[in-house]
Design brief:
Layout (H helix, E strand, L loop, with lengths): L1 H32 L11 H8 L3 H13 L3 E4 L3 E4 L10 H9 L4 H25 L2 H18 L5 H15 L3 H4 L2 H19 L5 H12 L3 H21 L1
Antiparallel strand pairs: 1-2
Helix pairs in contact: 1-3, 1-4, 2-3, 4-9, 5-7, 5-9, 5-10, 5-11, 6-7, 6-10, 7-9, 10-11
Length: 240
Amino acid sequence: MERVLTDVVALENRDLGRNLTHGMLDLLGKAIVTGQYADRPFPTEAEIAVAHGVSRSVTREAVKMLTAKGLVSARPRQGTIVQPASSWNLFDTDVLRWLLDRKFSVELLQQFNQLRIGIEPEAAALAALYHTEQDMVAIEAGLARMAAAERSYDDPLDADIAFHVAVLRASRNPFYAQFQSVVETALRTSIRFTNRIKGRSANIADHAAVAVAIAARDADGARDAMRRLIGDVLSLIAEA
């Protein structure tokens, strides 16, 4: 019994350390992305530890994670240096979330959807060629959730994201599937913005056209339908 209690305490301490590390990561990462270190040096690990009341090991691990995301770099005799935005890993979901958390940028939203139009139409075409029965069930479930959301029986944002993620997975290409986290993170801002402009939720008919083409294994039709869907978003952003 004593051994079990010891193991539980050890597990809780490890989880606490992990939570502290990710808490520091989130705090420091958001500060960097929002420009809080634009005109002042990044603090040392010792300074961060003292300022936030955490151990040096927690601070050190958080800084290592920031380095892996391209936000900072360590240089001999210069300490930790904040990197320019061009060095940041924009495909990292934390970095993308911090970018979207800062002052809203229509330009960033436009750039994201330009990326989407280079990825999702081709993913839809591949889905038409290679989807499984299970993939089609997931796509149709996403569409059904969107219809339910129109009647206030589901969350319109989550339903829309579920549809797009299902299409990426149905491509049966692991590289396209890797964009799932990026698309899911950034769509939350994109959909909120475009729905606010239109005064309504996403166009279910446009999404249904994608699903119908995929089900029919019509690659060109699926590609065109998804391109029209995202093109409509880009037009709304341009008008805004």
